[in-house]
Amino acid sequence: MDVYTRTGRLKLYLAILGIFFLIIPLFYANYLAQNLAIREKTHVEILVKTLQFISNNSNNDDDLTYQSEILEKLNDSRVVTINQSDEIQLHNYSEPADTAAILARVKRSNITPLTSPDYKAIYFEYPKILTLISYFPLLQLLLLLFYITIAYAVFNLSRKEEQNRVWVGMAKETAHQLGTPISGIMGWLDNLRESGISDDEQREIMNHMEMDITKLQQVSDRFSKIGSIPELQKKSLPEELQRSLIYMKARASSKIDFKLIFNEDQFYFAMINSNLFSWVIENVIRNALDAMDGQGFITIRLFSIHNVNHIEIEDNGKGIPSSKFNTIFRPGYSTKSRGWGLGLSLAKRIIENYHNGKIYVKSSVEGEGTTITIQLPTV
């Protein structure tokens, strides 16, 4: 199953889940409205009987306090009774008894009137609170659709922005990766053009040029492996680390002290792709060099705990704020004005997706330095 199929299915599942969470409140709000409507009809029946009792006993000396209290408590309900002659007989509207206006008003509500042996029809209006509740599901749906629309637009914008950062970063990373060996080759060519160099010096220059050309081939191979499943082989980590250190040391300031520390009596093997692994190490070291002012130290410590190889790369550069420990691995993030912001993002992808390992900032103090840890399973 490819990534697009998985993404499509994930979106489908999320859509189904969203619909499920939408339907539950809608049904619940509808359930409340129906129950309140049934309750309101009971109130209407009580109200009609109360109005009828008051109408029949208005000329008597009976105490109507209780009935008046009922009318007061049910003042949100409005009723109009129609007798067999289609005339309004009872109502509890406060406005003047304009029969035509009252009847038109209650009929506009489109509420099915109640029936009674004493009246042809009993028209009524629901209280405002019940009307608001009946409109609540629609309001909720509109708000949810508005939220989904905004969220989708923001998500799309964010995704496109990240894609743009990745493409721009990939282009700059390619140029940067190619720049180092190309600059080296041009420098060696300038040396060859100089007169008076010995045969031994020519051979040394040719060896360095061969190393840089090999590096160009490695860069091409690295980019070709991004997005595909690389072939992993059992390799000795000290040898791989030493090779990367030698390459980076030759291209760094002579005032930078490089060290590789590990227990020589112990074996450190891992399933890795040498080309991609060296890319990760070089990226981390290159970032360390960028954080230093041309002098200091870069120390790599290798040790194993509970069948996990730990590679700690420490420098005494500018350091990283703790709030940026995770951010530095995101595509497009860079503290340099001309930074590409993709090296550590690719390093994280290579270590975690291809090598089943971890890479993270173990510690960092601004102005003192940073330690980045890489973990790989032992074999």
TrEMBL record:
- Name of this chain's protein: histidine kinase
Histidine kinase domain: from which residue to which, for each copy? 173-379
Listed under catalytic activity are:
ATP + protein L-histidine = ADP + protein N-phospho-L-histidine
Q: What is the lineage of its organism?
A: Bacteria, Pseudomonadati, Bacteroidota, Saprospiria, Saprospirales
SMART domains per the record? Answer: HATPase_c
Q: Keyword set for this entry?
A: ATP-binding, Kinase, Membrane, Nucleotide-binding, Phosphoprotein, Transferase, Transmembrane, Transmembrane helix, Two-component regulatory system
Q: Does the keyword Transmembrane apply?
A: yes
Please provide, alphabetically and separated by semicolons, the GO molecular function terms listed in this UniProt record. ATP binding; phosphorelay sensor kinase activity
Task: Give its E.C. classification number.
Answer: 2.7.13.3
> What Pfam families does this protein map onto?
HATPase_c (PF02518)
This protein's superkingdom?
Bacteria
Species, as recorded: Candidatus Defluviibacterium haderslevense
Q: Where are the transmembrane segments?
A: 12-31, 132-155
